[in-house]
Amino acid sequence: MHKKVIFSSQKAHILLVSLLLWLFSAPSSAQNRSTHNASVSKNLELFDEIYRMLDLFYVDTLSADTVMQWAIEGMLRRVDPFTEYYPEENDDLRQMATGKYAGIGAVIRYLKSEDRTVIAEPYYDTPSSRAGLKAGDIIISIDGKDTKGMSTQKVSQMLRGEAGTTFTLVYRTAGDSLCETVVTRETIQLPSIPYYGMLEDGVGYIFLSSFTEGCATAMRMALLEMKSKGMKRLLLDLRNNPGGSLSEAVDVVNLFVNKGEKVVYTKGKLSAANHEYLTTTDPVDTELPIVVMVNSGTASSAEIVSGSLQDLDRAVVMGRRTYGKGLVQMVRELSSGGAVKITTSRYYIPSGRCIQAHDYKHDGTESIVPDSLRKTFYTRGGRPVKDGGGITPDTLVARDSLGTGYWMAQASDAFFNWCTRYVRTHPAPADADALTLTDDDWGDFVQYVTENDTTVKADTLQKYCDQLHFDLKGELVTRYFWNEGSVRYAALYDPVTVSARALLKDDVRMQAILRKEASVEQPKKNKKK
Predict the structure, then answer these.
(1) Which residue among 134, 325, 386, 528 is the active-site one?
(2) Which of 280, 368, 398, 480 has its CB surrounded by the most CB atoms within 10 Å?
(3) What pLDDT, in 10s, does the model give residues 294-327?
(4) Helix axes 413-425, 439-452, angle to 10 degrees
């Protein structure tokens, strides 16, 4: 046991030293290299001495791996939110890059009334759906281990594992039947494009949810298919897209602009971090009218795409101001195992602007770049655009004026459970368009929620009835027609999407926005039906 602790301590110490050297071994040109290196060495020796004393004298025996994890996380947390350490056994980095993980293919959530984890959404044609799991099924045990009181994170870890391995799952259905099944884990590929298709009047729609490996190729295929079906205009939905691969973002822009176009360039402390990214292949269509939908959840590579298409006057951007992540990370493997994702540069889109909105002080605090300090740049056609605060859409959409009461109702277990009960007692409609909620259904919903969640009041539900009707139908469509059906439903009926389709079909307005003299269109109130 003692030998194991010594080995763990040595490995953890080597890991931290390696990470520190990666982070601090390259001072900027303004620093004196010898002074900087001396400071690094001195502080590494200080840390080494403190840790050895802690390990030797502390009243309890501490896990070296745990203590080093605290030290690493504490250090990196003060740098910025994107510089992170991934232990060797952690699969998050691979999932982030590829969209793949090994598990059962389901979204889970915590159900307070049961103090257990429940299946929230099984993915189509995955181990979860093939095992017959449905939204609302309550997980009782995994390989004999009772899950009562377990966090969803712990349950998720138990559901994941090596592809091909099996486990015994005991769960309770909405009808209170106790079921047991053996589930085989598989490699799950989360689609970067959950849905694409033709809407109306030659409008094609693509929901691009992430920039994982191969997403540009998938998007090219989707575009070619829709063009063969008569697509004349494109609605590209990047809302809540957190980004991903920079090179995939360049390839997506390449679908709409000519070969040899500079899309983005990066600048860092080291010359190796400085790079220009140009389009390298022939485009699919350089004339297709495009509206790109964005919101505050649009970040990173999704901002490269929306911002580049804006800077090149190639698309109209519509929605809310984006997140404002203008930083680039590089993944470096560690000799002791694992990897570290380090912010190595800032990126600049075609107009020359960097859209980084957050100023990280490297002491655990941050501030937002004020609008007064945002500089003006110009698109290819001469339209003014700003740096330092994300991408400001050409056409702004008003924020929904939804209060705390709405969010409490929408996130309520009672909301979720009512949908579970509805699906159990109502056969699937022919398609999503055929799904209707009657006045009786709404009355039953109000009664059920208020009886089962005392924090939600009937007058609150009535106040937000339009929005909640939309949310209820969206949840039910997901239950009946999987995630693809849910995205298509939103594409057809979400009021922001409806406004975007109207803009896309208005050639005069589209051209006016893209002209040099056009100003940002101010938001109009949207109301869900």
Answers:
(1) 325
(2) 480
(3) 999 999 999 999 999 999 999 999 999 999 999 9
(4) 140
